[in-house]
Amino acid sequence: MSLKNLGDVTYFRLNNEINIPINGQIPLHKDQEALEAFFIENVEPNLMHFDTLRDRFDYLLENDYIEKDFFGKYNFSFIEELSTWLYDQNFKFKSFMAAYKFYQQYAMKTNDGEYYLENVEDRVLLNALYFADGDEELARSIADEMLNQRYQPATPSFLNAGRSRRGELVSCFLIQPTDDMNAIGRSVNSALQLSRIGGGVGINLSNLREAGAPIKGIANAASGVVPVMKLYEDSFSYSNQLGQRQGAGVVYLNVFHPDIIAFLSTKKENADEKIRVKTLSLGVTVPDKYYELIKENEDMYLFSPYDVERIYGKPFSYVDITAEYDNMVANPEIDKKKIRARDLEQEIAKLQQESGYPYIVNIDTANNANPIDGRIVMSNLCSEILQVQEPSIINNDQTYEKLGTDISCNLGSTNVVNLMNTKDFAKSIDAMVRALTFVTDSSSIDVVPSIKNGNDRAHTIGLGAMGLHSYFAKNHIEYGSPESVEFTDIYFMLLNYYSLVSSNKIAKERGIKFYNFEKSKYADGSYFDDYVKEDKDISPVIAKLFEGIKIPTPADWQELKEQVQTDGLYHQNRLAVAPNGSISYINDVSASIHPITQRIEERQEKKTGKIYYPARDLATDTIPYYTSAYDMDMRKVIDVYAAATKHVDQGLSLTLFVRSEIPEGIYDWKTSPKQTTRDLNILRNYAWKQGVKSIYYVRTFTDNGDEVGANQCESCVI
């Protein structure tokens, strides 16, 4: 019986019985029965078997399932040894959802889709061999981290490692056109190419002149950003990896751009079809000045990007609007129009209620915390990538007069629950950083030269986390409590410290620093100022959780500072927290660092129907600590994210969860249960005040059980 001809199976029914209480109790044992039935009925009869490991690899190589180059970097005796070790660990999935997701989405299958060609151990083996690039000791370490689920590469890396017919290992891309037709045309081609390769594409439109602006002295000639948005949407729709997935993109616009209202209107439910964008995501970059104008209930001026670039000699995105706002208002050479700041704030909140958009990037917050020389101007499809970019200048023949730097995202996640079980944080993080480093080193997106240039210069990676709420519940800590905030602070401080240690080691080993290191806050030492002060005061409850784990002292930070100043860092950026969805199921933990939405999560799996996923370690003692995000004060979530943000050199994908009818007592300002735009305005402003760099979706749970804004970016989420 092949995978395409499965007969009567019991595992879906058994899994669905979790949702039918017995004597008021959740029958969690049904999920374990479903897991067992899945292996008996699905995996075991459809897994292709071989007499020896050599026979297996000969088959995979001869039939072009895996690459030959990486395989040839190892003695086969070592591959046998590592494979034996992996199987000796007796790995077991903890839930039906985890096993089902792995075999449906990640396990390599025969070309006809009839049989599985690998188990988890085999996929981990290929990942470890591929990322270690011939280094046997590193391969052992990566295999150990992955099989024990302390480390999880992002989907593109985990899925494609070792395969001969594969997509890229990176997750997503960020590009930006400048204000001319050559750059716009080149960016449309780049969007087509990057969408074909895989992953979502972020595009910054803030530099483009507004609708009605002059072109070559002809008044009212420019069409503005909306028609360009339609070009990108059509490009992503067309370039969809042979129909396997919908192309995905997000466009960002500065809140002080004159087209901001038209930009937001493209996502309204009643938008005219001529301007409506259905599949394109929207993001807004928000300088601090905007929040100041809202607070003072003042008018705000929207400035012509064409005039601003003409006066300041650089594209609109690269002008510090907060610092230059008054000068720009007073300058008669800059065309501008006036609106009420609070009116725009209402428009943003209304749209977030309707659609979950736009994402918000607090661009000054991001730049003020940025240790790298240059300016952050946008983010990606999940709002966690925040890196400096340089604009390109395009010639008439579409070649580069000046080759700028754009961004590719290279992601992986620590599993908080399992990483906290190790006593050697340094060894674990070093293996993870080196695995991610291989991905950035081997990435060469030459079809978009600005992406390749940015990657070659910066060597950026994005190590994050998943399973934070699972860890809190397991240890009887309430999400959003002072203890949870303190734990998050220390955990991410450790990620920061040990990733810096590893990046410094790699720089010293190779004699290579990231481009412009000498102009960074790492080089002058100022980045370390807050860390080399007095010892962090840790409460007894949290200190016990970190017992046996080396927490760096100010003296350790001082020593690291000196080493970094001497030998540099290999990676321009190291940390970023993606929303990771499906990949967290395989790890049997809550997604990212946000709270769960359901104790027994219900997922609609395409043709399969509903699958139920119980939260990690769900039991009588942990249930009180598994509060749904929809029943939680979002300020608690913001506090947790703010604690992590202090240590993350990029961003964190923060989703806000609210109900259309808000339960009584969650928010002290509420006098009626109906969700209002004021609720979202208060939460966004609170996030900004707490130093949060970006807000991803606003997800609203409606009375009829729907979720508004529940769309997901596949490249980062899974």
UniProtKB/TrEMBL annotation:
Keywords: Allosteric enzyme, ATP-binding, Deoxyribonucleotide synthesis, Disulfide bond, Nucleotide-binding, Oxidoreductase
Matching PROSITE patterns: RIBORED_LARGE (PS00089)
Gene Ontology BP term (one): deoxyribonucleotide biosynthetic process
GO MF, any single term: ribonucleoside-diphosphate reductase activity, thioredoxin disulfide as acceptor
CDD domains per the UniProt record, alphabetical: RNR_I (cd01679)
Domain of life: Bacteria
Reaction(s) the record says it catalyses: a 2'-deoxyribonucleoside 5'-diphosphate + [thioredoxin]-disulfide + H2O = a ribonucleoside 5'-diphosphate + [thioredoxin]-dithiol
A UniProt-annotated Pfam family: RNR_N
Domain called Ribonucleotide reductase large subunit: residue spans: 557-579
GO cellular component: ribonucleoside-diphosphate reductase complex
EC assignment: 1.17.4.1
Protein purpose: Provides the precursors necessary for DNA synthesis. Catalyzes the biosynthesis of deoxyribonucleotides from the corresponding ribonucleotides.
Family per similarity comment: Belongs to the ribonucleoside diphosphate reductase large chain family.
Designated name of the protein: Ribonucleoside-diphosphate reductase
Organism of this sequence: Floricoccus tropicus
